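The freezer alarm interrupted the setup, so I double-checked each line after restarting. Inputs confirmed:
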Amino acid sequence: MIKKIFFQSIFFSFLFFKEAFAAESGGMPQLNPEFWISQIFWLVLTFGIMYVVLSKFILPKISNNLESRKSQILENIEAAEKQREDSEAKLKEYDEIILKSKMEAKTIFNQTREKTLKDIGAKKEVLDQQIDDEINKAEKEIEVLRVGAPDKINKIAIETSSELLEKLIGSGVNSSSISAIVDDLSRRNGDKYYGN
Amino acid sequence: MAANPMSQFDVYRIGPEIKVGAFDISFTNASLFMIISTVSILLVFNLGSKRNSILPNKMQLLAELSYTFVAKMISDTAGSKAKPYFAFIFSLFMFVLFCNMFGMIPYTFTVTSHIIVTFILAAFIFIGVTVIGFIKHGFGYLKLFVPSGVPAVLLPLIVVIEIISYLSRPISLSVRLFANMMAGHTMMKVFGGFVISLGLVGGWLPLSFSVALTGLEILVAFLQAYVFAILTCIYLNDALNLHH
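Predicted 3D structure, all chains:
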């Protein structure tokens, strides 16, 4: 149905078309030279004016705009590049400073440690010396006491024996004879009591 | 009469008859649309070049994109030597494009659908290119008709063919634009006539054709302007950089 209408329409339209052409004799208005001169004149006039205005005023402005934008973008890129370089240099500097201060801190730490160790060593030596002195002194005193001890014991023994004898016998006994006995005893048993 | 698909190409006088000597230079509908086209071109590009901001607005973008488009077209086909002729090719491209595009609006007149207009443009280009060629290369420009690497036997024939092809340039250039515009507009008018004559029942098919044709014609309008400009660039390239 649609197909039929389509073909019929085309057929009828060509009829109309032919009728229209038949009605209007003359064909293409383009080939009618009546207004050719007028068209040429107005074409040259309008195109000429447009060309002059475009080439003298408008196109230089557009090209200027494009150039200035290009140069500005380039400038900005350059500035950004420079800033980046600057910041990189600063970063390097910062790293160097950090490294340097780390080293310094290390040396200071080491120095302090050595000094402290030295101090401790010196003080320890002094103390050791003192302790040694004290020990020596004490040993000497002990020695003195040890050397003096038998005499004292003898004396005590003599005194004790004389008192005992006095209580036992009831009369005084010659102390020299007692001491002689005690000496004799102590000499005989000396090794037993004070053996080194 | 509106039913005639050729009546849209009629030129008629607007206002009084103006005569300079024997020549009739009356203001016609063709003149009106030439003025409309040029004024709109100047308006668009004046608005587009007024302010210079880093982030262009729409008009500026339009102007700058057109500028770079034409500049690239010229540098691609004719090289850097064609720079002095940039303004002319730009005006030419824009004039043809705007005339074609204004012709796409219903009830308007298409300036470029008249052979006399396209022929004057093409003839001006032809004469200009030939003059530039002779100025740049002197009589060496005639070497254009003698291609290198052709056997001596064939040379007379080739030279004749080259001369004919060179001389037919303005005709082919003008007829291409004129015929494209005229054929497209005639076809649209014919299909429009079908819509009316077939009415509500059968008119839908030619109407859809008409819609499709309108899109095609807008494409053709741009394409023919582009072809016109790029052929001008190619002819200019022959004149500026003699290859043969």
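Quick read of the result. Chain A has a mean pLDDT of 83.
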